[in-house]
Amino acid sequence: MPRRAGSGDVAGAAPWWDAAFGPAYLLVYPHRDDAEAERNADGVLAALRRGARAFGTNARVRDLGCGDGRYARALAARGCRVTGVDVSETLLAEARRRSPGLPGTPTYVRADMRALPFAAQFDGVVSLFTSFGYFDDPSDDARVLGEVARVLRPDGAFVLDFLHAPVVRATLVPSSVEERRGVRLHVTRRVDDVAPGGPYVRKTIRLETVAGGDPVGVVEERVRLHPPAALDAMLAAAGLEPEGAPASDLRGSPFDPATSPRFVRVARRVATGRTRGSGT
């Protein structure tokens, strides 16, 4: 992703995702795997079909923030023509390594989600596992949604899987220790209401080997806490009309404002008028 001023907490510093979405990601999130994608892929497809006016066989889908391609592969196996987009060279290389030999193997592209190298060519776009809310400037989040609208065909569908900010605030676990594949993770979490552009939820993960306690590295993650009403307003402003009721997971479970940890929203790209960032 091209560097720009303000992409980190310290002026001129590398953005936090450079480390978080490098090799450490595969150690921190090994459970975000193909089995998880298989459990949820039919629900993702159902949401896309519910949002789009027409979403048939061989529909073109863009997986925004595709990581190692687990959902891109699952959707491709179900007949979609998938383009995975991510900023991380490491995760895209892993996606390509894991993807050959599938019918309709996904295509993977490295790009900045604020300036996508596509035209209005997709029937659906998905943003899964909180692949949104990363930038210092809140207007960049709106810019991302404008790009989603721009690359969707009229009446195409967008599925946004995001954290549910009020429940995250109420239930955040300040610290935990977890072990995954021989690595111990010391995790601390906090809500930051002070930093410019916030509020944010911040996570610091210190990794060490289980066997010897040797340090592996430290990664920081940070996501802006957009509440549901703000997300709906941002979607509408970008030309993405929210459709129906939100869900609490990718399988379409009913959304409970008091308890749901996730906010899954389906929106349709409006067919008339101009959308922000669009040349149509």
Structural notes for this entry:
Residues 1-10 and 274-280 have low confidence and may be disordered. The chain folds into two domains: 17-164 and 226-269, Vaccinia Virus protein VP39 (Rossmann fold, 3-Layer(aba) Sandwich); 168-223. The chain has a seven-stranded mixed beta sheet, sandwiched between helices. The protein has a four-stranded antiparallel beta sheet with strand order 6-7-8-9. The protein is of the alpha/beta class. 38% of the residues are buried. β2 (81-86), α5 and β3 form a beta-alpha-beta unit. It contains eight helices and eleven strands.
Main sheet strand line-up: 3-2-1-4-5-11-10
What is the arithmetic mean of pLDDT? 90
Alpha-beta content class: alpha/beta
Give the helix level as a range of percent.
Answer: 25-40%
| Overall domain count | 2
Terminal residue distance: 26 Å
Using only CA atoms, what is the Rg? 18 Å
Q: How many beta-strand runs?
A: 11
CATH topology of the largest domain: Rossmann fold
Report strand %: 25-35%
Instruction: Tell me the name of the CATH homologous superfamily of the largest domain.
Output: Vaccinia Virus protein VP39
Largest sheet: 7 strands, mixed
Count of helix runs? 8
Q: How would the global form be characterised?
A: globular
Which CATH top level class of the largest domain fits?
A: Alpha Beta
Poorly predicted runs of 5 or more residues: 1-10, 274-280
CATH architecture of the largest domain: 3-Layer(aba) Sandwich
